[in-house]
Amino acid sequence: MSPAPDMSAQEMPTVVLIHGAFAGSSSWNGVIANLKRRGYPVIAVANPLRGVQKDAAYVRALLDSLPGPVVMAAHSYGGLVMTEAAAGASNVKALVYVASVSPDVGESVIGLLGKYPGSQLATSINMVPIPSDDGGTTMDQYILQDKFPEVFAADVDPGTAEIMAATQRPASASAQEESVTKAAWKTIPSWTLITTQDQGIPPDLQRFLADRAGSTTVEIAASHAVAVSQPGPVADLIDTAARATARSMQMSKSRRD
Q: What is the pTM of this model?
C-alpha cells in the first residue's frame, strides 16, 4: 500500500502503540506490518506495567522525543496509560482505543470493570508475590494459562493463544488499582474499536466509555486479543484516525495561510 492520498510521506504521523496487561509489544506485530505497508512510521512501546503513573511517565518521555505529529493507539490497560501520558502533549493529534478503556480523572481499571457485568478476569488471575523497590512485597498478576485462551484470546489460533499464555507479561496489582489524574480524550479527538465478544473488558463498558468521550466508534466481533486475531480492522481504524488528523492539520494550515 502507498501512503494515504491526503498525506505526503513527510506528513504521515508516527503511530505509537501501547500494549496492555498480559501482553507485550509483539501483540501488535500484525498491526505494525499492516501500517508499515501503508507507509506509517511505527513504534510499539514496551509498557512497563508497573502502575499508571510510572508507565505514563515512561511513555510521555518517548512522546516528547518524537518530532512531528503522533497518533496513539492503546489496548486494554494501555488505554489508562495513553489517557494519562497524552494529556498536554502538543504532538499527539489522535487517540485510538482498541478493546480498551478511556477513563476519566479518578478512575481505575478495577473501578471501571465493576460498572458492567461480563469480565472474566477477576476469576482467572493468579497472584505472585515479588520483592518491591522499598524492600517489601508487591503482587504481580497473571492470567491462569489454562484460562488464557478463553478469557483473552478466544478467536486466536489455539497454538498461538497457548504461546501468548506462556509469554504473557504480568501487571502489578497497583497498575489495576491506580487512577488517572488527567484525561487526554477531553482535548484530543478519539476513535474506539469495540470488541463485541470480549471477556476481558465488557462491550457495554467499552460503549459507555466511547460515548462519554465523544469517540468515533467501530464494532467488531472479536475477542480481547483483537490486535492479534484481526489486525487488519485495527490498522484500518488507526489509518482512519491518521487521515482525519491530516485533513484537520491541512485545514488549519490553509486558514493560517
A: 0.94
